[in-house]
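Hallway conversation turned thread

IA: we were arguing at lunch whether anyone had actually written out Acyl-coenzyme A thioesterase 11 end to end. Turns out nobody had. So, for the record, here is the sequence (612 residues) and right after it the structure tokens. Reply here if something looks off.
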Amino acid sequence: ATLLLSRCLLKMVKENIVVPEEILSFCCNGLQGSTSPPRAREPGDREETRGAMASPSPPRNPTEVQMSQLVLPCHTNHRGELSTGQLLKWIDTAACLSAERHAGCPCVTASMDDIYFEHTISVGQVVNIKAKVNRAFNSSMEVGIQVSYEDLCSGKHCSICKAYATFVAQGSNGTKVKLRPLTPQTEEEKIEHSIAAERRRMRLVHKDTLKDLLTRSSRETAELETRDGSAAVPAEKTRVESVELVLPPHANHQGNTFGGQIMAWMENVATIAASRLCHAHPTLRAIEMFHFRGPSQVGDRLVLKAIVNNAFKNSMEVGVCAEAYGQEMSVSRRHINSAFMTFVVLDQEGQPCTLPMVAPEPGEGERRYREASARKKIRLDRKYVVSCKQTEVPLSVPWDQSNKVYLSYNNVSALKTLVAKANWTLAREKEKVRMYTLEEDKFLSFRIEMSVCINADRAFSLLSDLRRRPEWDSHYASTELVQQVDDDDMIYHVVSQTLSRENKPQDFVILASRRKPCSKGDPFVVAFRSVTLPTHPASDIFTRGETLCSGFCIWPESEEMSKVAYYNQATPGYLNYVTTNVTGLSSNFCATFEACEKFLLKNKEDLIMQHF
């Protein structure tokens, strides 16, 4: 039949007879092995997918960008490992493409959060980068980046780092562009979207945090470190200065110098400075949060300077700055960026080696030396409190001025993460009060919610003041404001009516962090977590209790109606109380929340009068 069709088709062509499209298609399909003519698609038919067992894939974030790069010898250093500068260029490229996919216009890198490099990548392995916009604000947006490597021979996959970059959308004349909001779809995206507002807040106060700690550390008269058997290397011997001419291959599609290219040049001079101290080949372990101060363009000269600020036992901090000027005869230079990079030297077993000490120059060198020590303290706080998962952060984290921002971040982000979970199950419902539970590997969490006839802002003001909690919560005996950290964070000493197994009242030292909505649709947040204070150690009178994650979220439903929800990630000592309420053996939760409603309704008029 196939041969007959072919002969008929050939004869029609020779005689200049127009072949109908249906017949031509049928013949072509027949020649390719089809045994039935094509039929017109019916209205209800679905387009066939490849593979009989193809399953529907989850919806993909429209801003998601994936990049895979094979590490070639030209990308590596002398050890055959991927150059960190090259990796930074790839990270910045993927993040920029994701930002522009959402903005629909050119975007520039504004800042990059701390990056901790967990592993090195060897030649022949594949770098996989995934970037997507977590949240869009007015004209800036946060892009989350995940980097992993893949060994093609063994099939092994391993995480390299996770980073957050901030990009700013720019119009044709360089003006800022107002961005449309981003709607998260999956549970992971909802968590990242919610916490992005808290990370933004932390970035905005980062400079003040540094300034505050450095001001206090400058008052201390700490002596320079001494290490037995080590000769100090003058810091001046590690100084590096290099100049780069910005050419078209170094610029992005907007004509500005690629942010990733500037980071790569900075990493290069920083590596040289670190090598001059240790006379070995150092490995970059971390880059501290930094901001781009301004752009540079094709034709600019970039002057890059680096020096070792301080060397600790197993690591060193290198300070790098980039300045730009346009003409060879230019006197003034534009400050583009400053960064602080942490290097280590690894032995054959991959363990950090002991480093020589640094002898700082008098004056400015000593200032940089002491500031490096202060920054190390902040880096440790930030990595320990912010980068860890909630379950990896001990309850008894000491609170002090240097880590207050990061404990506040951890407090609020933990509650927002709990709120964004998807598998909440309705356990009880009594009149207007609903109780939900969430069972996870290590925790049983619960949420109690109800709608209250009160403005959300007023409910937020009343519930964020723990001193008023005993007015409606019978479990609270007394609450004392220990420290007013700032307008949004307070530390309280709470004494509970509940007796412990030792037949003593329980007491708590609680950090209360409150946040107003960052944008429409966000709730008012009041988060609680335990901290320790030297001024309030555990005493024999009480049994010191701890709370891992709890707090209120308040959503406005109308001008005078709000949904108030209380969340608690129950610790072992609290589980029995939770389960008796879940199973209906007790109604304490419902009674307490009903008392909370009466408290809000009773006091909302007082707040109204205070505004007049």
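OS: looked through it. Residues 214 and 371 are 6 Å apart (CA to CA).
IA: good, adding that to the notes. The longest strand covers residues 157-169.
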